[in-house]
Amino acid sequence: MTDASEQFNIPRPVVEAYEIATAPGDLPPAEIEARLATRRTQFRHENTIVPLAPRLDEAVEVLATAGTGVRVERACVFYTVDGSLPDAAAPRALMEAVSVEWEPLPGYLTHWRGRIPAQPAGVTVRYRIGGWSTPEQTGHEGEEGPPELWANDGQGFWFRFPGERGVTTFAYRVEPPGPVLPAWAQDAVIYQIFLDRFHPDAPDGRFPPATGPNDRHEGTLEGVRQALPYLESLGVDCVWLSPISPSETYHRYDATDLHGVDPALGGGEALRALTQAAHARGMRVMLDFVPSHCSWHHPAFEAARRDPAAPTRSWFIFDHWPDRYRSFLQTTPSLPSFNTDDPGARAYIIDSAVRWLRDYGVDAFRLDHVIWPSMDFWVAFRAATRAAAPDVFTVGEATDTPDCLRRYRQRLDAVLDFPLARALRLTFAARTWDVGELDRFLAAYDRYMDAGPGRVSFLDNHDMNRFLFIAGGDTRSLKLAALCQFTLAPTPTIYYGTEVRLSQRRDIHDRDAAGVGGDAEARRDMPWDEGLWDHDLLGFYRTLIRLRRERAALCQGARRTVYLDAAVGAYAYVRSRVAAADESGAPDEDLLIAFNVGDTERTLALPPDSPAYTCLLSTGTPPDVGSANGQPSLTIAPRTGAILSPSRPR
Question: What is the mean pLDDT of residues 170-198?
């Protein structure tokens, strides 16, 4: 396979901006351009339907494109509503060629549109899009023959596999009106734990000495249970655990059994004890679940390689049995990819997820590399997990472009917000964006994603350099970024140790001959010696989390910019919440969030009708609330920000 970077010359600043918040499985800029360009030679469906979240009694438009490198003269959508796989004998909806558009990379594209009739709530619609190369085609005795080609999925990396080598079955589920997220998740604060590096069984939290960066450091589920009082005092109410399955590595993203708990973590009873203890404290537990791939030592894969007639042979995609098979990113043979459209593999994966919910009291899933399984898989996963636990929360690691992220609406509850993480890291850590660019990004991105799934925000995670490392250890930058993160709508996540100033020694992209470095740098042991903690930073996070949970405007309010002077780094916005019972539409809560990212003190002139404000939290010296030239104003110290509340009821 030709590397897309050889075909497209992407400017280095674009690549660097992209690389500041990436994860394994991301589509780099060159791959995105390759995906667009290959539309010229493919009959493609990008999972684009209108509306994105179908409701009862709504017909659904299905959109597809064909480039000039493939001839499509006629097309139909074949669909089923009984769970069966659609084929040429299924009910069909004729498609029409509604327009021809020109785009820079693929050239001329014919846009096809079909309409599937409205269905009742609770119905899963599975569909395929068939095409013919002639306006009229008949088969035996005048009967129409089957389609000559099926439209393939172009999302994620699937554009590399056109036609039936890739994904050709799609789905959506009709749901009754309701909130995008479960109620508890909308207001949650999530704490991400990398199990092997968080807390061992030892009550004092001390890890074994002289352990290598890629060895197991013996963090356990019991260790997390012991740390629950600390997490409760921090204020978080959802604990995200890295993968728990038996595995040969410290990170456990290479499971040898999706239905088991690694004995080194304490086994199933330790997980059950943890969920029960967390629930007793009003906390939820989220599992990092990996449905896309497994270890090449997984018994199902070993059987498939030994015997082409093995029952699990179809669980994996062999391009040439037994040595050429689809794997994670097509670069990691030790991580063979599941064929999640195979009924056996699908049942194995989904049954595992349901088991964690029903038997162990797990509340949520962070879903790894969701751009590999098809939307048909995710619709089935959502239906099964919601049947087992109606308020389950599913969050996808969707490392794709924003247009693709939007399409996970009503397939997953939320996606991890990589675009926002990138913007916050560029603005507050690397300082290559000014606040004007941040404000324009937020305005456009929030509006664009409004029709999409919920979002879960973060500043760093286990796959990227820690925020503090990029910021050169400057906690002022971290506080400013966290202030912004926690005062925007997406559900916030804290990566373990960030709140006590845990950082790293070297860039994760640097690895020496001895193997020191790499992503293990962003996964260092959590220090439990409080003498090593930054208590000022910890106190700041505790107050920030408390305000997020107490002030509804920070979770559910609308945002509007009230001051912006990008040249000097001064910026302010208001989060306003209107009570549902208030027919006047007047906000019952206004919170002002102000920033001075510059190196000198600045005075912000506020709108004339602004109330008097009281500071609830500052990242440093509290701002001075006053007036300038008869207009309300706010004087902010350099490199600080604050949350302020009206001093009197509105």
Answer: 96
* 286 DSSP β-pair partners: 240, 364
SS3 200: strand
| Domains assigned to the chain | 4-173 (2.60.40.10), 183-292+340-550 (3.20.20.80), 293-339 (3.90.400.10), 554-646 (2.60.40.1180)
Q: Please give the Cα distance from 199 to 353 (Å, whole number).
A: 25
Residue 392 near residue 154, CB atoms below 8 Å: no
Q: Hey, what amino acid is at 30?
A: A
Q: Which of 454, 495, 464 is nearest to 478 (CA)?
A: 495
Token reading at 435: 């606040």
Chain-centre distance for alpha carbon 450:
15
Mean pLDDT of 35-61: 96
Contacting residues for 359 by C-beta, under 8 A, at least 6 apart = 272
φ/ψ bin of 262: left (φ > 0), alpha (ψ from -120 to 50), beta (otherwise):
beta
Instruction: Identify whether the C-beta of residue 467 lies closer than 8 Å to the C-beta of residue 425.
Output: yes
Whether the full predicted model's pTM is greater than 0.85, yes or no, is yes
Residues 431 and 449 sit within 8 Å (Cβ to Cβ)? no
Sign of CA dihedral 183, 188, 192, 193: negative
- List C-alpha distances in Å: 343 to 66, 87, 256, 348, 448: 29, 16, 20, 9, 35
The pLDDT score that the predictor gives to residue 630 is 73
CA-based nearest residue to 284, from 417, 355, 389: 389
Average pLDDT, the chain: 92
Can you say how many angstroms the Cα of residue 340 is from the centroid of all Cα atoms in its chain? 19
DSSP string computed for 391-458:
T-EEEE---S-HHHHHTTBTTBSEEE-HHHHHHHIIIIIS--S-HHHHHHHHHHHHHHHTTS-EEEE-
Contact 433, 595 (CB under 8 A): no
Element (DSSP H or E) covering residue 640: strand 640-646
Residue 627: pLDDT band by 50, 70, 90 thresholds?
A: confident
Q: 10 Å Cβ neighbour count for 553?
A: 20
Lookup result for tokens 């001064």: 570
What values do phi and psi take at 227, rounded to 5? -90, 0
Q: What is the pLDDT of residue 15?
A: 45
Q: Are 109 and 67 in contact (CB under 8 A)?
A: yes
Distance CA 482, CA 554 (A): 13
193 closest CA partner among 493, 606, 402: 493
Amino acid at 171: A
Coil vs helix vs strand at 215:
coil
Q: What is the pLDDT of residue 629?
A: 74
| Percent of the chain at pLDDT exceeding 70 | 93
